[in-house]
Amino acid sequence: MTSIQYLLVGLLTIHLAMAIYAIIRTIKTIKFSRKQKKLNIILILIVPFIWTVLIYYMLKEEPNSYEIENRDQSSVHYYESGKGAPGSGIGTL
Fold this sequence. Notes:
Shape: elongated
Low-confidence stretches: none
Strand content: under 5%
Structural class: mainly alpha
Protein backbone atom coordinates (compact mmCIF):
# COMPACT_ATOMS: atom_id res chain seq x y z
CA MET A 1 0.00 0.00 0.00
CA THR A 2 1.14 3.51 -0.72
CA SER A 3 1.11 6.32 1.80
CA ILE A 4 -1.98 7.86 0.19
CA GLN A 5 -3.86 4.59 0.64
CA TYR A 6 -2.83 4.49 4.32
CA LEU A 7 -4.04 8.06 4.70
CA LEU A 8 -7.41 7.22 3.08
CA VAL A 9 -7.84 4.13 5.27
CA GLY A 10 -7.02 6.23 8.33
CA LEU A 11 -9.50 8.93 7.36
CA LEU A 12 -12.17 6.30 6.68
CA THR A 13 -11.55 4.75 10.10
CA ILE A 14 -11.79 8.12 11.83
CA HIS A 15 -14.96 8.97 9.89
CA LEU A 16 -16.60 5.67 10.84
CA ALA A 17 -15.71 6.11 14.51
CA MET A 18 -17.09 9.66 14.55
CA ALA A 19 -20.16 8.58 12.59
CA ILE A 20 -20.96 5.76 15.02
CA TYR A 21 -20.69 8.18 17.94
CA ALA A 22 -22.92 10.76 16.23
CA ILE A 23 -25.48 8.14 15.17
CA ILE A 24 -25.77 6.85 18.74
CA ARG A 25 -26.26 10.39 20.05
CA THR A 26 -28.82 11.10 17.31
CA ILE A 27 -30.83 7.98 18.13
CA LYS A 28 -30.86 8.75 21.87
CA THR A 29 -31.92 12.39 21.60
CA ILE A 30 -35.46 13.63 22.00
CA LYS A 31 -34.78 16.85 20.08
CA PHE A 32 -35.47 15.27 16.67
CA SER A 33 -38.54 13.56 15.28
CA ARG A 34 -38.25 10.10 13.76
CA LYS A 35 -38.03 11.52 10.24
CA GLN A 36 -35.34 14.01 11.27
CA LYS A 37 -33.33 11.24 12.93
CA LYS A 38 -33.38 9.16 9.75
CA LEU A 39 -32.36 12.11 7.61
CA ASN A 40 -29.53 13.07 9.97
CA ILE A 41 -28.20 9.50 10.07
CA ILE A 42 -28.13 9.40 6.27
CA LEU A 43 -26.35 12.76 6.13
CA ILE A 44 -23.84 11.64 8.78
CA LEU A 45 -22.84 8.75 6.54
CA ILE A 46 -22.89 10.67 3.26
CA VAL A 47 -21.21 13.94 4.30
CA PRO A 48 -18.04 12.90 6.12
CA PHE A 49 -16.83 14.91 9.12
CA ILE A 50 -18.90 18.05 8.44
CA TRP A 51 -22.34 16.70 9.32
CA THR A 52 -20.93 14.78 12.27
CA VAL A 53 -19.51 17.99 13.73
CA LEU A 54 -22.79 19.81 13.08
CA ILE A 55 -24.75 17.11 14.91
CA TYR A 56 -22.26 17.21 17.78
CA TYR A 57 -22.79 20.95 18.26
CA MET A 58 -26.57 20.75 17.79
CA LEU A 59 -26.86 18.12 20.52
CA LYS A 60 -24.30 19.69 22.84
CA GLU A 61 -25.68 20.35 26.30
CA GLU A 62 -25.73 24.02 27.17
CA PRO A 63 -26.94 25.73 30.32
CA ASN A 64 -30.43 27.07 29.94
CA SER A 65 -30.93 30.80 29.91
CA TYR A 66 -33.36 30.68 32.82
CA GLU A 67 -30.93 28.97 35.18
CA ILE A 68 -29.60 31.40 37.73
CA GLU A 69 -26.38 30.86 39.59
CA ASN A 70 -26.55 30.52 43.38
CA ARG A 71 -26.19 33.87 45.05
CA ASP A 72 -26.29 35.05 48.61
CA GLN A 73 -29.82 34.13 49.70
CA SER A 74 -30.08 36.95 52.25
CA SER A 75 -30.37 39.62 49.54
CA VAL A 76 -32.94 37.73 47.46
CA HIS A 77 -35.81 37.69 49.97
CA TYR A 78 -38.60 40.14 49.30
CA TYR A 79 -40.53 41.45 52.23
CA GLU A 80 -42.80 44.33 52.95
CA SER A 81 -40.94 47.42 54.09
CA GLY A 82 -43.70 48.79 56.30
CA LYS A 83 -43.35 52.29 54.82
CA GLY A 84 -46.73 52.37 53.08
CA ALA A 85 -49.85 54.03 54.42
CA PRO A 86 -51.81 51.72 56.73
CA GLY A 87 -55.13 50.49 55.39
CA SER A 88 -54.58 51.74 51.85
CA GLY A 89 -54.76 48.34 50.20
CA ILE A 90 -57.13 47.27 47.43
CA GLY A 91 -59.65 45.78 49.81
CA THR A 92 -60.18 48.93 51.88
CA LEU A 93 -62.55 51.64 50.66
